[in-house]
Amino acid sequence: MNVLRDSRTGLLDHALLLFAAHGYDAIGVQQIVDAIGVTKPTLYHHFGSKLGLLDTLLAERLTPLHVAIETAATYRHDVAATLGELSRTTFAFAQDNPELYRLYLSLWFAPSESEAYRAALPFHERHFVALETMFLAAAADHGNMTGRHRAYAATFLGMVNNYASLALSGHTELDETMVRQAVHQFMHGIFT
């Protein structure tokens, strides 16, 4: 057993649970270290600070989401199929990582001058750019979409994240029916 590695993983795991449940700003370093029975110097050794812990948490745990989103956003001349794959990818990640996705969503709306918002911003931008790039590519096939890629990316991302949020709160299921409903609803709006 590697105690240093285990304490690092434990700090990440417990910080995630605490940040998702209470918000980043509501949690102090002492609460995090108490949750796994280590001291503050252990956290500082691994991450340098509470912000360093958040930076590491986001970088390590969100990278699989962004790689999957970028893959799903590869446009293959079928908007509906691409949007379906993006929805499935997002919904699966939210279901498999509910605390992480809840934290990710909450950081979209953190105060714009907060360190948590600034830490999450590159991840939010990466997510948005993947969608925006897909809609730019689709505009080559669908002239009525030209110049609307940013609005479409924002609207689609907002819709999918809203469904994920509803599911994380127990109000809906993120199943294939929801994927079809989301894509149908979105497609009806952009092609009318």
Topology diagram in text:
Elements: H1 3-22, H2 29-36, H3 40-47, H4 50-72, H5 79-96, H6 98-108, H7 115-139, H8 149-168, H9 176-190
Helix pairs in contact: 1-2, 1-4, 1-6, 3-4, 4-5, 4-7, 5-6, 5-8, 5-9, 6-8, 7-8, 8-9
Pfam families: TetR_N
Protein name: Transcriptional regulator, TetR family
Organism: Rhodopseudomonas palustris (strain BisA53)
Integer-rounded radius of gyration: 19 Å
Number of strands: 0
- What is the CATH class designation? Mainly Alpha
Largest sheet: none
Distance between the termini: 60 Å
In sequence order, what are the helices and strands, one letter per element?
HHHHHHHHH
InterPro entries: Homeodomain-like_sf, HTH-type_TetR-like_transc_reg, HTH_TetR, Tet_transcr_reg_TetR-rel_C_sf
Domain HTH tetR-type: 5-65
DNA-binding region: 28-47
GO molecular function: DNA-binding transcription factor activity; transcription cis-regulatory region binding
Task: Briefly summarize what is shown.
Pfam families: TetR_N (PF00440). The protein is 77% helix and 0% strand. With 192 residues, the protein is mainly α.
Give a written overview of the molecule.
This protein is mainly alpha-helical and 192 residues long. The protein has one domain (50-190): Orthogonal Bundle (Tetracycline Repressor, domain 2). Helices cover 77% and strands 0% of the residues. It is built from nine helices and no strands. The protein has helices spanning 3-22, 29-36, 40-47, 50-72, 79-96, 98-108, 115-139, 149-168, 176-190. Helix 1 (3-22) packs across helix 6 (98-108), helix 4 (50-72) packs parallel to helix 7 and helix 8 runs antiparallel to helix 9.
